[in-house]
Amino acid sequence: FSSLTEVVFSAYKDPDCKKKLLDDKWEGLYDPKDFKLSSENIQKERIAGLGTKAKKIEYQGIQSPVLEITLILDDTIYKGTSPVFPINGITDSLEVEYDIEASLLKLGTIIQEYDGSIHRPPFVKVEYGGKEPFKGYCSKFDIQKEKFDTEGTLRLATVTLQFKGTKSIELALKEANNQSPDITHHYVVKDGDSLAAISYNTYGTTALYMELARANKLNSLRYIEPGTRLILPPLEK
């Protein structure tokens, strides 16, 4: 067991994995080399202007991360012994069989089974190797049954799992704290703020303070009550 790492799957109702859907969870072991965590920046190219081949690169955001894990369910790994209640002061042990079919069924219930209370399969928190938990949904669940004994009992199976990361819109916006002038967002006025300063900090120029005033239907250009919530729409310099 020393070369294997524990992995735990838990089912939740929400994409931030704060509200549990099931009290039960699936726990097992996997080889660390058989997991992959990936993500990428999404960028869009467009022609900078007519008559030119120059391209403007526009950043679109970060693609949701993807986690891939391969689980080897082998009864020779999971099989163990359990102490038996002592008889006449002698404690014996009983060999415990690992039921791979039952383990696969439980895994499917935890990470993939449709739940009528949330009208979808669960969101899943994946804890593995002491790393930051991964939160997402199962997008791939492939089972390859590889070895049976003479009685037809499954002894070895390989499970390939893929999870796509999720995050609630509220949490994503909070973490991004996006100040891009290409995206509508809000600003709460502080004491001493002016429209010209807000325009400069947001758009890189003071020249858009009139547009800001019109967008927010302000009666005064000189004084804005601290605490006022302004809309900062996409504006051209």
What can you tell me about this protein's structure?
The chain has about 240 residues and is an alpha+beta fold. Helix content is about 15%, strand content about 40%. Strands 2-1-9-10-11-6-3 form a seven-stranded antiparallel beta sheet. Helix 4 packs across helix 5. It is elongated. Residues about 80-85 have low confidence and may be disordered.
Order of helices and strands: EEEEEEHEEHEEEHEHHE
* DSSP E strands, number: 13
Strand order of the largest sheet: 2-1-9-10-11-6-3
Report the sheet-strand fraction. 35-45%
Please estimate the helix content.
10-25%
Overall pLDDT confidence: 79
Quick synopsis:
The protein has 237 residues and is an alpha+beta fold. Helix content is 17%, strand content 41%.
SSE layout and pairing:
Blueprint: E1 5-12, E2 20-30, E3 35-38, E4 41-47, E5 55-62, E6 66-74, H1 75-78, E7 80-83, E8 93-96, H2 100-111, E9 123-128, E10 134-148, E11 154-165, H3 169-176, E12 185-188, H4 195-203, H5 209-215, E13 229-232
Antiparallel strand pairs: 1-2, 1-9, 3-6, 4-5, 6-11, 7-8, 9-10, 10-11, 12-13
Helix pairs in contact: 4-5
